[in-house]
């Protein structure tokens, strides 16, 4: 055994001890903020406090879709089909969205293919303001919309619109692994000019005889539904299907899988729907940390409701001033009873004492 | 003199201020973030320049410059950045560096204790005798409505001491030492409150008088002295701004029974009559952490402070329309007024009716 090998764990332990001690000391002396400031000032992508990625290039995919090619400082790795939280600053406010990763794991860079949603704050900002050389913040890649470890013999990758992004990652990965055997890739788009990755699909299908690419254009044929799907993919019942697309399209094709639902894997990004009751009664509040769910009575603010349900919360003024009852809302819609302001952003901070539920909520409590 | 408002006018008054608040909430955005970040940047560069000059210089000129730059950095950090960030004024940005709950400032007061007694007690029960412990901090007599006792005779000297040690005063305020002396708080409870304060204070002392001097090697005494003076500059400045915001003549005190079940409009009125502004230029306002707009700060403690100067004339106009006083004056005038209050109230009040405004 070499000396180096014997010493390695010892050296690593000493180094990590020294690092931890420095970190604790800098926090105790309030120097950590200063360090982070100078990193941000001099080399923002080098930040250790959060994962940042430099934008290498921005590529036009269609008239309203762009691909952002990112170089993160480090990358934990992802599986094809997973998404990553992306944080950008729009008008001084940090906003977070999850985007499917369109590049396969073997790609040296991380690609996000983003459609410009009318009225969408993040996608519009990215299309207009995010350029090569800028940086974005990333979270950890996540999601279980992934192929099983052994590839199913017969596969259908079914997408509508920008739902193609996780599926193109799966397809690219299969092509890289030379595993494109008996794969049908069916993509529904509004029109020819909305088809994502058209030239790449053509190239892959000419290279790989095992790949069948089917395009369904809404302006040329009836909308894609269960019946249409059976026509386009007659051996549907024998295929493991991975489906991602707009809610309407996914609902329309779902009946096709009656009797073999187990073969359908899907990815949904759903927006919170406001609760019907104006008083906020009957909304379910899910407490993420304590894993509790309570149902609101509509008789008071979230603080009142949670206290009635037996939660013991920190509060101060109970009138929206002191900020003691501030809490992060992970999802859902609340209304500020003082101002009437609606909060529907994920990860918004709300004050429980002046908020009522306008939908089912998840709170970081 | 303030006109007594009937309930419907109090409500209308409150609605007008609510509308102002909403207007700022609707506009809040890039401008506010740019402002606070530019203050943070100025503070960090001043801090770095101050440390560099103190640590490597050997002559009196670099000592004076370095100490001044460090004092400036501490003032900006405590006043415009720390105080306002810890009020949650920038929580909506979701920037962890501007997050009010996790911010800790460069001074002896433990951040979470300040958030409790200041954000909650002082801002909710502003100037209610017996509820707002900021009225004289439990040992000063700043209004004739507080009972006099013989210890108040030396308060002019106590106040001067407090000015130089202000950060320790702010930190120790969380202890409620006066309540333990009066027998209303147990020694065990006092100890619970004292521990975070002592821990934070010890860390600050270590940083200013061991860690940074140690880094300077032979220059250690010079760095320690520079830190001491910089802390002192910040202490005196913060003391002056804060005393001018609450203790000049004309600031009204309240009794608990008159504030019971007060509507929002009356709460706003109390904030206005319980605070005083200082007039000055833009730099003065930033250095004061915009506490020169104490009235606007008390009305809207969670709006970005850089909005107060543009709100002030509009708040004042609303006050005029409703016949309400709006206490403002030049820095020197407000300081003189505070000094007079401290001196006058050191002696027992002559038989005269309590000041009502």
UniProtKB/TrEMBL annotation, chain A:
The keyword Cytoplasm does not apply. The keyword Cell inner membrane does not apply. Keywords: 2Fe-2S, FAD, Flavoprotein, Iron, Iron-sulfur, Metal-binding, Oxidoreductase. Its cofactor is FAD. It holds the Pfam family NAD_binding_1. It comes from the Bacteria. Residues 48-148 form the FAD-binding FR-type domain. Residues 283-365 form the 2Fe-2S ferredoxin-type domain. In the N-terminal section; belongs to the FAD-binding oxidoreductase type 6 family. PANTHER family: NADH OXIDOREDUCTASE HCR. This is Ferredoxin reductase.
TrEMBL record, chain B:
It comes from the Bacteria. Residues 70-328 form the Fatty acid desaturase domain. InterPro entries: FA_desaturase_dom, Fatty_acid_desaturase. PANTHER family: ACYL-COA DELTA-9-DESATURASE, DESB, FATTY ACID DESATURASE 2. This is Acyl-CoA desaturase.
């Amino acid at each position: 055994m070499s000396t180096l090998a014997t010493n390695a764990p010892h050296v690593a332990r000493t180094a990590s001890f020294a690092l931890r001690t420095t970190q604790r000391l800098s926090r105790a002396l309030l120097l950590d903020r200063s360090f982070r400031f100078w990193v941000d000032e001099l080399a923002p992508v080098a930040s250790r406090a959060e994962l940042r990625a430099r934008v290498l290039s921005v590529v036009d995919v269609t008239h309203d879709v762009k691909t952002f090619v990112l170089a993160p400082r480090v990358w934990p790795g992802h599986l094809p089909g997973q998404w990553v939280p992306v944080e950008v600053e729009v008008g001084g406010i940090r906003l977070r969205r999850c985007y499917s990763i369109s590049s396969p794991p073997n790609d040296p860079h991380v690609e996000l293919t983003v459609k410009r949603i009318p009225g969408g704050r993040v996608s519009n900002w990215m299309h207009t303001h995010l350029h090569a050389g800028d940086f974005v913040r990333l979270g950890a890649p996540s999601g279980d919309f992934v192929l099983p470890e052994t590839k199913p013999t017969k596969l259908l990758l079914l997408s509508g619109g920008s739902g193609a992004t996780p599926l193109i990652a799966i397809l690219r990965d299969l092509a890289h692994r030379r595993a494109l055997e008996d794969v049908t890739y069916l993509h529904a788009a509004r029109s020819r000019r909305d088809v994502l990755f058209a030239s790449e699909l053509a190239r892959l299908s000419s290279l790989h005889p095992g790949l069948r690419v089917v395009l369904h254009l809404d302006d040329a044929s009836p909308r894609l539904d269960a019946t249409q799907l059976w026509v386009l993919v007659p051996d549907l019942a024998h295929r493991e299907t991975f489906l991602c697309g707009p809610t309407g399209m996914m609902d329309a094709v779902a009946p096709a899988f009656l009797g073999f639902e187990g073969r359908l894997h899907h990815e949904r990004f759903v927006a919170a729907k406001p609760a019907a009751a104006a008083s906020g009664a009957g909304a379910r509040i899910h407490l993420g940390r304590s894993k509790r769910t309570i149902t609101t009575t509509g008789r008071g603010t979230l603080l009142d409701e949670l206290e009635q349900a037996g939660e013991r919360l920190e509060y101060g003024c109970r009138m929206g001033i002191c900020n003691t009852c501030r809490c992060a809302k992970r999802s859902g819609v609340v209304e500020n009873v003082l101002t009437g302001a609606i909060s529907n952003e994920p990860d918004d901070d709300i004050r429980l004492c002046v908020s009522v539920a306008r939908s089912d909520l998840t709170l970081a409590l | 003199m303030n006109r007594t408002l009937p309930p419907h006018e109090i409500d209308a008054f409150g609605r007008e201020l609510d509308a102002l608040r909403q207007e700022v909430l609707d506009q809040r955005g890039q401008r506010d973030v740019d402002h606070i970040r530019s203050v943070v940047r100025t503070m960090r560069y001043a801090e770095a320049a101050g440390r560099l000059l103190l640590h490597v210089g050997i002559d009196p000129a670099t000592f004076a410059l370095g100490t001044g730059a460090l004092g400036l950095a501490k003032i900006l950090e405590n006043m415009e950045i720390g105080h306002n960030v810890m009020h949650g004024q920038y929580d909506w940005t979701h920037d962890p560096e501007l997050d009010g709950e996790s911010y800790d400032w460069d001074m002896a007061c433990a951040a979470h204790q300040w958030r409790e007694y200041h954000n909650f007690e002082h801002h909710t029960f502003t100037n209610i005798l017996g509820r707002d412990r900021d009225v004289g901090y439990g040992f000063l007599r700043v209004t004739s409505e507080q009972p006099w006792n013989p210890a108040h005779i030396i308060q002019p000297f106590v106040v001067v001491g407090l000015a130089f040690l202000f950060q320790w005063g702010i930190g120790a305020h969380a202890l409620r030492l006066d309540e333990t002396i009066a027998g209303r708080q147990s020694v065990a409870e006092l100890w619970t409150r004292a521990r975070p304060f002592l821990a934070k204070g010890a860390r600050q002392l270590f940083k200013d008088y061991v860690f940074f001097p140690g880094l300077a090697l032979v220059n250690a005494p010079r760095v320690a002295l520079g830190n001491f003076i910089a802390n002192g500059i910040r202490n005196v400045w913060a003391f002056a701004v804060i005393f001018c915001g609450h203790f000049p003549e004309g600031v009204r005190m309240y009794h608990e029974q008159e504030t019971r079940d007060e509507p929002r409009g009356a709460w706003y009125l109390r904030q206005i009559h319980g605070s005083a502004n200082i007039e000055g230029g833009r730099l003065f306002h930033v250095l004061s952490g915009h506490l020169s707009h104490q009235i606007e700060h008390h009305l809207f403690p969670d709006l970005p402070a850089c909005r107060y100067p543009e709100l002030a004339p509009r708040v004042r106009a609303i006050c005029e329309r409703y016949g309400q006083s709006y206490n403002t004056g030049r820095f020197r005038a407000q300081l003189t007024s505070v000094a007079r209050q401290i001196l006058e109230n050191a002696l027992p009040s002559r038989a005269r009716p309590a000041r009502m405004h």
